[in-house]
Each structure stands twice: as C-alpha cells, then as structure tokens.
Amino acid sequence: MPTFPAPDGTVLAYHEFGSGSGEPLICLPGGPLQDSVYLGDLGGLAARRRLIRLDLRGTGASAVPDDPAAYRCDRLVDDVEALRAHLGLDTVDLLGHSAGANLAALYVTRYPGRVGRLVLVTPGTAAVGLDTAPEERLAAARLRRDEPWFGPAYAALEDVTAGRGTAESFGAVAPFFHGTWDEAARERHAAGEGQRNREGAGVFASEGAFDTAATRAVFAEFARPVLVVAGEGDVNTPVPTAAAYAELFPKATLAVLDGAGHFPWHDDAERFAKTVDSFLNG
C-alpha cells in the first residue's frame, strides 16, 4: 500500500485504483475521520476515472499523529497538499464527501490555484457557515412516509431537529441517510460505526478550525468548475442546503439524484458515476 509522510512526519496511506482515463481524482472521506474504505469505488466511478482515496491520519492504514490537535480540519489541509506533491501533480481534481467536503473547502481556501475541478458530494457545511432549517430536514424525511419504519424514525428526527436528541434518537434516524433501508444499508451503517476515529472526530471541527468569511471570499472568486451532488431524500444535507452551497461559487452545477440519500453512489450507482465522470470530463 503506498504511503507518504505528512509535514509533521506522520505516515499517511492512500489507495489508488481504477481503470479510467484522465487525471486522478483525490477523494476525501467524511465521518468525520472515517476510514476511506466506505467510499468503495464510488458506484463504479473507478471504471471511468483513476481514484485516489486518502486515509486521513488516524484512520484506515494511516498512522496516529503524536499530537491529537493535528486532527483539526485546518491542520489536515497540509496532508492533502503533501499528497498532491507526493503524486507530482501541479493541480488536482478533488472530491469531498460529507465532512470531507469541509476539508476540500479549506484546501480550496488555502490553495485555490492547485484545484482543477471540485466535486462536493452531500457536503457538510461547517466550513462555509451554512445552517439547515429543521423543516428542511423534516421535509426530506417525509418523502419516505410510506416506509414501514417511518413513524418511529420520524419521531426521533423531530426530537433531533428540536434539540432533544439522545443517543437512541440519533441511532433511530439512520434509515433517512440511505435511499433504501435494506440489509445492505444496515450492514454499511453498522460497519461505519466502527470505522470512525472518535477522538479525531471530536477535534475535527473544534474552535479555530474554520474561518467561514475567508472561505466564502475565496469561493466567490473561484473560477474553476464545481459540482455539488445532492440526494433527494438526504436529511443531513437537504436539497435546499446543497443548492445554497452551490450558489457560493460563480461556476457551480447542482445535481440532485432522485431517491438518493447521504451516500448517493449506493442508491443510484450508474447515474452517480455518469454524473461525476461527465463533469470531470468537461
């Protein structure tokens, strides 16, 4: 497995695969601080594009840093830049999923000239200071009203959005993150619970991690193409939030995948891969 040193000496690993042509696509996982294995081949995108999945420090095959403060999102930017330099690329196409979109956003903020094309998949919004209204999440959830599990899950989501969330209610809303709450989705959810670096997750968005004004200012001048992918039923990043995110850029396209949740490459693999590949190919 290929590795490279981060600026502080932490040894980081990445996974390179795919038979597609064109420039490689660096993929940043969410979680935050979740093993990149959950991204898989991004719904078959690897057949169209060479993928490079980064294991963030303290996850997957990457080493644990000596200083836990190095898990903060703005500190992770230098790891991405070290990977770019290690690969010998002048510019990179970059994909960030969920919380990984916050890291991608900070990389663009610091190194805007190093990014060719940017893909944000059901993006987390802390880096840009976008808040999602509770009703937006509930409206996305009501698209699933005919599911047999809907009643208890929706009641739990009402508690979460009202600020009354408990460990039990946060667990109960899991079906809303997946386009289909079948056995495969349950297995992926259970696996994901064991793939996160919880110490790192607690530091990722800690005080000082984000300067939303600076990031928005860079985004307003960022002239490279941007794709924001939303899942129609995603309660984490509902469509209105994804649309507002896309509006921060002068050249952004919003793609909404019908029936998809927070992991759209599982819900409509063919359309997801085709959408991203078409964007990357211009």
Walk me through the topology.
Elements: E1 3-5, E2 11-17, E3 25-28, E4 51-55, H1 73-87, E5 92-97, H2 100-110, E6 115-121, H3 134-141, H4 150-161, H5 167-172, H6 183-193, H7 198-204, H8 212-221, E7 226-231, H9 239-246, E8 252-257, H10 264-267, H11 269-280
Parallel strand pairs: 3-4, 3-5, 5-6, 6-7, 7-8
Antiparallel strand pairs: 1-2, 2-4
Describe, in plain words, how this protein is organized in 3D:
- The chain is of the alpha/beta class.
- It is built from eleven helices and eight strands.
- It has helices at residues 73-87, 100-110, 134-141, 150-161, 167-172, 183-193, 198-204, 212-221, 239-246, 264-267, 269-280, and strands spanning 3-5, 11-17, 25-28, 51-55, 92-97, 115-121, 226-231, 252-257.
- An eight-stranded mixed β-sheet has the order 1-2-4-3-5-6-7-8, sandwiched between helices.
- Helix 1 crosses helix 2.
- The protein is globular, with a radius of gyration of 18 Å.
